[in-house]
């Protein structure tokens, strides 16, 4: 199983980015997916999650600004990030939870993790 995250970069405050996580080696449509982030010196936190059926969860800090979505035909989950703030800067990683029809918010329930992609928000 491989989860390949991409789309990170440097953006000004107020800007937007779209992260992608391409999955291979699994039956993507049956997996719940999540995006986590970790900033230096801070704990890893769940940003957004999506169930196999498309139900979503967002951390309070990103509600109204971030959108998680999935394209099962492309085995890819996305994270659209708008109105980015300096405090959104972190390494963003995607994760997959096997055979889950609900959103997964516990990191210990994810079976697979991808490498991170760096998001920097700075003027």
Brief summary of the model shown:
Helix content is 0%, strand content 48%. The chain has strands spanning 2-6, 9-11, 17-24, 32-38, 45-50, 56-58, 66-71, 76-81, 90-97, 112-113, 117-121. A hairpin with a 6-residue loop joins strand 4 and strand 5 (45-50).
Give a topology summary.
Layout: E1 2-6, E2 9-11, E3 17-24, E4 32-38, E5 45-50, E6 56-58, E7 66-71, E8 76-81, E9 90-97, E10 112-113, E11 117-121
Parallel strand pairs: 2-11
Antiparallel strand pairs: 1-3, 3-8, 4-5, 4-9, 5-6, 7-8, 9-10, 9-11
If you had to describe this structure to a student in words, what would you say it looks like?
This protein has strands spanning 2-6, 9-11, 17-24, 32-38, 45-50, 56-58, 66-71, 76-81, 90-97, 112-113, 117-121. The mean pLDDT is 96. By secondary structure, the protein is mainly β. Strands 2, 4, 5, 6, 9, 10 and 11 form a 7-stranded mixed β-sheet that branches.
Global structural class:
mainly beta
State which percent range the strand residues make up: over 45%
Figure out the total of helices. 0
State the major sheet: 7 strands, mixed
Ends apart, CA distance between termini: 37 Å
Total strands? 11
Proportion in helices: under 10%
Mean pLDDT score, rounded? 96
Please give the radius of gyration in angstroms.
13 Å
Shape: globular
- Spans with pLDDT under 50 lasting ≥5 residues? none
Order of helices and strands: EEEEEEEEEEE
Task: Provide keyphrases for this structure.
48% strand, single chain, 11 strands, seven-stranded mixed sheet, four-stranded antiparallel sheet, globular, mainly beta, 0% helix, 123 residues
